[in-house]
Write a structure and sequence with these properties.
By secondary structure, the protein is α/β, with parallel strands linked by helices. 56% of the residues lie in helices and 13% in strands. It has helices at residues 14-24, 31-38, 46-53, 66-73, 77-100, 116-119, 122-125, 137-148, 152-160, 165-170, 182-201; strands at residues 2-8, 27-30, 108-112, 129-134, 174-177. The protein has a 5-stranded parallel β-sheet, sandwiched between helices.
């Protein structure tokens, strides 16, 4: 098994790249997906999140309104730290549990971790290589406005609350630029995956 950390700024297209890796044969463990599961009514983080942020963050059916919660935490760094302190340890444990399912298999396992550069937790997962998906600010903002219905100001604000492009590039073993065509992106993902497989088989 080869553990590969995948990260990238919001709007860079990391989800698209992770899907491409899966189509090529990799297994995916997605931190965002785990986080969403933890905050459902049946999730382990639900009570703690609601207790701190209040019932105003809930839909009528009692589920967490993630957009409302995001508006709160991205407007206040202290609140963001509180949310992260609740969620991150649970996510980390779930990811490690998932990794153990593949421990003796001859495969590439992608750990999709949006905040890998911020948390610098490569060693805690045993990550062997890091893939960073990168896109210029204007491209990321355009995608967030087009596909997530954010305003330009909100998109820029969200991006500014993450690690800088420079900080992410510093931790990259492989850099995947997602500023061009889907064909160019596909070719680059294929190149990276082929190299990872070569290392795995060596």
């Amino acid at each position: 098994m080869m553990l590969v950390g995948l990260t990238g700024g919001i709007g860079a297209g990391k989800s698209t790249v992770s899907k491409m890796f899966v189509e090529l044969g990799a297994k995916l463990i997605d931190a965002d997906h785990i986080s969403r599961q933890l905050m459902t009514k049946e999730g382990e983080a639900y009570e703690m999140v609601v207790k701190h942020f209040g019932r105003d963050i809930l839909f009528d059916d009692g589920e967490v309104n993630r957009e409302r919660l995001a508006d709160i935490v991205f407007a206040n760094r202290d609140e963001l730290q509180v949310l992260n302190s609740i969620i991150h340890p649970m996510v980390a444990q779930k990811m490690l549990d998932a990794v153990m399912e593949y421990i003796n298999q001859d495969i590439v396992v992608i750990l999709d971790i949006p905040l890998l550069a911020e948390n610098k937790n490569r060693d805690s997962y045993g990550i062997q290589k890091i893939v960073v998906v990168d896109a210029p600010l204007d491209v990321s903002v355009k995608r967030l406005v087009q596909y997530r219905n954010m305003s330009v100001d909100d998109a820029v604000h969200r991006i500014e609350h993450q690690a800088s492009r420079q900080d992410r590039v510093k931790i990259a073993d492989y850099l995947i630029s997602n500023a061009g065509s889907i064909e160019e992106l596909t070719q680059r993902v294929n190149e990276v995956y082929s190299d990872l497989i070569s290392i795995l088989k060596s």
